[in-house]
């Protein structure tokens, strides 16, 4: 691995430091070196993690299967990630979150873990992992691992022992086994479709197992753990310590809201098959419904052993919830539908308090981010309350789509709720479970198609130009917001979903489990293009001609990273420029006592025109999501601007570095639709005096 680092010249570095310090002062922060350590109270909130690096970080999700393949098997691996560390350093990210790389039968792409303290040989070895941590740290990049505590793989030694030990054994107490001679223990369905209860007898052939079931909220190969059994938290303490001791800086907590179930396991309102009423048109109705029920597209394969005939009758709300509210939106839950006896139970908070203490016992501000599809914002912010987890993915932001009022509402609600608990708000537009945002935004609101469930060759195809312009604009807007931002691999290339992936190549069992109605998540997981040409577009980094695990579309080379590096206006260079300016101006940082989001137009005058404008220190971050140009005069009035302000970055034109007046003039006399800009407006820093710590 080469340790290339972009070393700025001494003079440039000095200038950058000066600018950064003066910016910190404007923002009411003394300077990085004097940030207080330890427990402090800011505006009534006492926390021990006010100085956490993760508060303002840009965290890049590596999906190891699809990032870079070094060992020529068509599947990405850790050595592939090591090879691309320079690329990530040049992009300017602060941390990498790695989706699971543990030993696993890969029934759910690695979210079915059979050994939490090792590496799947397909992805490498523990030595590779250590090299990755060392290499990343040498470049100033942190490493976060994905912890999957709701369930194990059925191949985990605990589950194998549980099957062998029989009813009533201590081994079975680690999972959720129930006896029900007739029917199933309750009416729960798997998030992936089909019942959530699997009969034990077919797996053991032991007559004493007749009438016994085990719970699997996800695939039948992913039995749920029993977090009421003290052995389970004790085990995960060891897992967390194992990785902390290996030098990781944080964790992403899978299904954080699902680990504890309501006492007595009462029936839910959804019933045993979420997909039973999916649309016949492959429009992804079921997936939308699932997302709206506060989960997202999951899968269970034909190997799950749950025959389709077991599918039960649909719920009344399925079809009502299938309509998207805006392009790129994920249907919002109809009042309270996210409340389920297996989500967001009070008991989860005990676990996170325990983990907080464990992580706080280490140096380096180790952190954990919750994957918690929970609403409303107050319940969601409970996961990041003092003494619990450090951040949670802002799925309300992701779910709002290309809809300025919805985005504004989601931003205000989430930042206010986070402010109350002293947590940074996070921002995220894509991940491995949802259709890439460059494609979600590529559909007009009235097109009558909901892309949320995945897109196939016979579905309406996206307007990729529109999607890319919108994605660039909203990504730039997002990266200018205070708090932590998450980037899903490939979005920095403007990568779209693979919308014509041959159905026979699909590996996300959502496709089978939904009776071929929801295409699922494969389209967002296609191996990355690194080179414009050649076998697998450089995904296999040696250039060997091996089949990537999912086929890439033939236009993939147009998005290749190496070509984008040379094109000044490429999406990659837009992200690079944005991250650089973000760092110089500390845009990720919320000054103590400042609200997480400060709207420039408290009167919502810009908002009414679908223009969102946030004051972030002495930078104003704007996006025009409307269909009309916002004329220069109106913009100046709203921003209190004269035209002499500097445009720092624009989504249509990387590195404009020119006066706002000139920029607007050359863009038809205003801020064009589908465009975001960052403006340096020293006249309006709008930052209160530094707060004294109470
Ligand atoms: C999380 C993961 C998803 C996985 C599920 C079950 O939601 O993001 O990919 O299928 O958990 O582990």
Question: What does it look like?
Answer:
It is a single chain. This protein has 694 residues and is α/β, with parallel strands linked by helices. The longest helix is centred in the middle third of the chain and has 18 residues, at 404-421. It is globular and about 80 Å long. The structure holds alpha-D-glucopyranose.
Strand order of the largest sheet: 11-10-9-5-4-3-13-12
The stretches of 5 or more residues where confidence is low (pLDDT under 50) are 1-10, 27-37, 280-325, 330-337, 688-694
Helix segment count? 21
Total count of strands: 20
Strand content: 5-15%
Q: Which ions, cofactors or small ligands are bound in this entry?
A: alpha-D-glucopyranose
What shape does the CA trace take?
globular
Please sum up the structure shown:
With 694 residues, the chain is α/β, with parallel strands linked by helices. It has 21 helices and 20 strands. Helix 5 links the parallel strand 4 (95-98) and strand 5.
Which tags fit this structure?
8-stranded parallel beta sheet; 21 helices; 20 strands; alpha/beta; binds alpha-D-glucopyranose
Helix-strand layout with pairing:
Layout: H1 10-26, E1 40-42, E2 45-47, E3 58-62, H2 64-67, H3 78-83, H4 85-91, E4 95-98, H5 126-138, E5 142-147, H6 157-165, E6 177-179, E7 197-199, H7 201-204, E8 212-215, H8 231-245, E9 250-253, H9 285-292, H10 348-360, E10 367-370, H11 377-381, E11 391-392, H12 395-399, H13 404-421, E12 426-428, H14 437-440, H15 464-479, E13 484-488, H16 510-513, H17 561-566, H18 571-584, H19 605-608, E14 611-616, E15 619-624, E16 630-631, H20 632-639, E17 646-650, E18 658-659, H21 660-665, E19 670-671, E20 675-680
Parallel strand pairs: 3-4, 3-13, 4-5, 5-9, 9-10, 10-11, 12-13
Antiparallel strand pairs: 1-2, 6-8, 7-8, 14-15, 15-20, 16-19, 17-18, 17-20
Helix pairs in contact: 8-10, 15-18
Bound molecules: alpha-D-glucopyranose (GLC).
């Amino acid at each position: 691995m080469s340790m290339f680092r972009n070393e700025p010249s001494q003079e440039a570095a000095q200038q950058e430091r000066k600018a950064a310090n003066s910016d910190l002062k404007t923002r009411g922060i003394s300077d990085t070196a004097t940030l207080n350590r330890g427990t402090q109270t800011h505006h009534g909130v006492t926390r021990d993690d006010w100085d956490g690096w993760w508060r303002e970080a840009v965290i890049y999700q590596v999906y190891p299967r699809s990032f870079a393949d070094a060992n020529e098997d068509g599947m990405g691996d850790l050595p592939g990630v090591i090879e691309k560390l320079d690329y990530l350093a040049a992009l300017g990210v602060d941390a990498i979150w790695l989706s699971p790389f543990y030993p696993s039968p890969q029934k759910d792409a690695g979210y079915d873990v059979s050994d939490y303290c090792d590496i799947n040989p397909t992805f490498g070895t523990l030595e590779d992992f250590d090299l990755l941590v060392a290499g990343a740290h040498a470049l100033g990049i942190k490493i976060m691992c994905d912890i999957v505590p709701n369930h194990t793989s059925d191949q985990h030694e605990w589950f194998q022992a549980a099957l062998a030990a029989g009813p009533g054994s201590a081994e079975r107490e680690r999972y959720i086994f129930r006896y029900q001679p007739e029917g199933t223990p309750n009416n729960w369905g798997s998030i992936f479709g089909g019942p959530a209860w699997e009969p034990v007898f077919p797996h053991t052939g032991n007559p004493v197992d007749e009438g016994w079931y085990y719970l699997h909220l996800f695939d039948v190969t992913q039995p749920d753990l029993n977090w009421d059994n003290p052995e389970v938290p004790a085990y995960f303490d060891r897992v967390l310590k194992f990785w902390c001791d290996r030098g990781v800086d944080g964790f992403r907590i899978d299904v954080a809201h699902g680990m504890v179930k309501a006492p007595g396991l009462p029936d839910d309102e959804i019933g045993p098959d979420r997909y039973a009423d999916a649309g016949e048109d492959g429009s992804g109705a079921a997936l939308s419904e699932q997302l709206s029920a506060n989960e997202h597209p999951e899968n269970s394969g034909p190997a799950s052993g749950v025959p389709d005939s077991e599918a039960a009758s649909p719920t009344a709300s399925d079809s009502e919830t299938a309509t998207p509210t805006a392009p790129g939106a994920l249907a919002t839950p109809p009042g309270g539908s996210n409340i389920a006896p297996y989500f967001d139970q009070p008991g989860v908070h005990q676990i996170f308090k325990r983990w907080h203490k464990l992580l706080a016992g280490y140096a380096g501000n180790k952190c954990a981010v919750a994957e918690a599809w929970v609403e409303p914002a107050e319940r969601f912010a409970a996961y990041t309350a003092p003494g619990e987890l450090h951040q949670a993915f802002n799925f309300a932001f992701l779910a709002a789509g290309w809809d300025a009022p919805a985005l504004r509402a989601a931003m205000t609600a989430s930042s206010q709720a986070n402010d109350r608990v002293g947590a940074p708000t996070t921002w995220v537009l894509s991940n491995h479970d949802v259709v890439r945002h460059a494609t979600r935004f590529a559909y007009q609101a009235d097109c009558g198609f909901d892309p949320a469930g995945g897109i196939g060759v016979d579905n309406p195809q996206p307007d990729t130009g529109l999607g890319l312009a919108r994605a660039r604009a909203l990504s730039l807007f997002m990266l200018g917001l205070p708090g932590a931002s998450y980037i899903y691999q490939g979005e920095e290339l403007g990568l779209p979903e693979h919308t014509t992936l041959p159905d026979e190549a699909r590996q996300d069992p959502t496709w089978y489990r939904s009776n071929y109605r929801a295409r699922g998540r494969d389209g967002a997981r296609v191996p990355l293009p690194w080179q414009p040409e050649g076998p697998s577009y450089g995904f296999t980094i040696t250039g060997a001609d091996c089949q990537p695990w999912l086929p890439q579309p033939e236009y993939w080379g147009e998005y290749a990273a190496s070509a984008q590096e040379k094109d000044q206006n490429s999406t990659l260079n837009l992200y690079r420029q944005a991250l650089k300016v973000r760092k110089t101006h500390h845009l990720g940082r919320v000054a103590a006592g400042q609200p997480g989001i400060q709207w420039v137009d408290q009167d919502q005058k810009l908002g009414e025109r679908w223009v969102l404008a946030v004051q972030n220190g002495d930078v104003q971050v704007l996006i025009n999501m409307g269909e009309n140009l916002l004329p220069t005069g109106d913009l100046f009035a709203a921003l209190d601007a004269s035209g002499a302000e500097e445009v720092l970055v624009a989504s249509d034109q990387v590195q404009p570095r020119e006066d706002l007046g000139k920029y607007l003039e050359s863009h038809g006399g205003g801020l064009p639709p589908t465009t975001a800009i960052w403006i340096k407006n020293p006249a309006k820093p709008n930052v209160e005096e530094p707060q004294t710590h109470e």
